[in-house]
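Let's sit down with a protein and look at its sequence and fold side by side. Please make up or recall a protein chain and show it to me in full. Label the sequence line and the structure token line clearly, so we can match residues to local backbone shapes. Go ahead whenever you are ready, and we will take it from there.
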Amino acid sequence: MLAAERKLRIVEYVRQYRTATITVLANEFNVHEATIRRDLTEIEQEGILKRTHGGVIIEQWTHDEPSFNERTHQHVDQKERIGQMAASLVEDGENIIIDSGTTTLHIAKNLVHRSHITVVTNDMNVAAELRDAPRIKVILTGGELYPSSYMLNGMFTNHVLGSLHVEKAFIGTPALHPQHGLMHPEAQLVTAKQEMIKSAREIIVVTDDSKIGKLSLHTVAPNTAIHTLITGKEVSDYDIKPFQDWGMTVYRV
């Protein structure tokens, strides 16, 4: 096989499987690992794939989020499991922040029968879910209403979040990258998440497996700022290992 053809087939292989190690590619194409390394260096220079320690990944970008209604119907079973696990980490008597989102909404669903918890949120859906929970205090941040998702955002939201101190913040995200951390495509939504992170002693990111490894335009926070990651059991060992290497406690549920 000519080198040019082999490089095309390497790209096709990684696009199919998202990641691959040098050893796997060498076995797949029946060549020495040194040959694969040379091929990967040339492919990376073309901007198609990204080298990692011992392998290669295809960089997947998140340029925008689907609508709230679309996200509500995506990965529902996984989000339910994530919400249940996240809620189990909340202790009675704690003050917590629950970020806006379709995954974080499932945390609220699993807190309705709990006691003596204060929930701060910028999501009217989260607040509505807890409205009949008699032993939970709910604080809405205020801010500009985004009618499509019932999220509150903007200057007033940031001001309130910046004045708070809580034990835990549960943060949702459309992109979590192994090098660049928590990411988001929309600049106007970044600051509120950053204020949540500043206000909390422990940062817990909740996201389904489709967001793991994604790149986006803006970095919200580095991986070193995240203490715990809760995602679905669907995520691969390869995709999750970099976050464990950063020192995160990872739950795959």
Summary: The first helix runs from residue 3 to 17.
